[in-house]
Every structure is written in structure tokens, then in C-alpha cells.
Write a structure and sequence with these properties.
alpha+beta; two-stranded antiparallel sheet; 3 helices; 2 strands; globular
Length: about 140
């Protein structure tokens, strides 16, 4: 995920803003904990607590949810530190997979238009084929 997360940190001198990969790590860890909690508290698939069964998602499912909703960043905050110009490209050293956006990853009732479908912990053996048909409604799907 992006190293551009900025976090307010308490230090001996007071509160300071910090950024970089060491600040992206706690941001991603916190987001991963929220994704796990979303499934454990039954938010899936209805988008409200208890609207579905409690699910213990695999680490791979949590990672997939985080990556699926990541948003491209148009530029970097401090190009001098990164030794780059201010422009970025998808999957470059400045942004990785982009900025985490849980609202673009998980369905919450009355918040956003994302509808989540999850298949987790399914084993596919050698020479086996698993096919899923998914319909995307172009009328309600925001592709921006």
C-alpha cells in the first residue's frame, strides 16, 4: 500500500505529523483489523452489524479486500524526500497499490455503492476449474 499515509504521533516534544512506510504500516494494520472485524461482526453481506453470519476471514481475504479498494494517487506529498517529481504512476515506488479506501472495499448500508462478494478458503486442486459468474451493473457502477 501507499507510503503516503500521514499519521499524527505523540512524541516528547508534543504532537507531530509523520509519513513514510513506517507510518503506512500502522495505517494498513489498523485497516486490516477493521476488515477482519467487519466479517467477524456479521457486516457481510448486508452492510450492517449482524446482517450476516460471523466469518473468520483468511489473511489472504483480508489482503484482497485491502488491495481491491485501493485508490490511485495523482501525486506525492513531498517529492524532495522521495527524490521523485510530484507525478506518480500506478504501482510505482511512491504509491505501491495506492491509498487504502475501506469505503471502496466493503459494503456499508447507506454509505457508498460498493457491493462486496467474497469467496474465501476454497481449495482448487490440480487440473480443477472453478468458475464464478459475476454481473456488474454498468448503470450503478462508478468506474472513476
Amino acid at each position: 500500500m501507499s507510503s503516503a499515509h500521514r499519521i499524527l504521533v505523540f512524541s516528547r516534544g508534543g504532537l507531530v505529523w509523520m509519513a513514510g512506510t513506517s507510518m503506512a504500516t500502522p495505517a494498513v494494520s489498523g485497516a486490516a483489523a477493521l476488515v477482519r472485524e467487519y466479517f467477524e461482526k456479521g457486516f457481510y453481506p448486508g452492510g450492517q452489524k449482524g446482517s450476516g453470519p460471523s466469518i473468520m476471514p483468511s489473511a489472504a481475504a483480508v489482503k484482497a479486500v485491502l488491495m481491491n479498494g485501493a485508490q490511485f494517487m495523482a501525486g506525492v506529498d513531498n517529492p524532495a524526500v522521495l527524490e521523485l517529481d510530484s507525478s506518480t504512476n500506478p504501482y510505482d515506488v511512491a504509491q505501491g497499490f495506492g491509498r487504502i479506501s475501506l469505503l471502496d472495499s466493503l459494503h456499508l448500508a447507506e454509505r457508498g455503492n460498493i457491493r462486496t462478494k467474497v469467496w474465501d478458503r476454497q481449495t482448487i486442486g490440480n487440473a480443477q476449474l472453478l468458475t464464478r459468474d459475476v454481473t456488474i451493473d454498468a448503470e450503478t457502477c462508478d468506474s472513476t
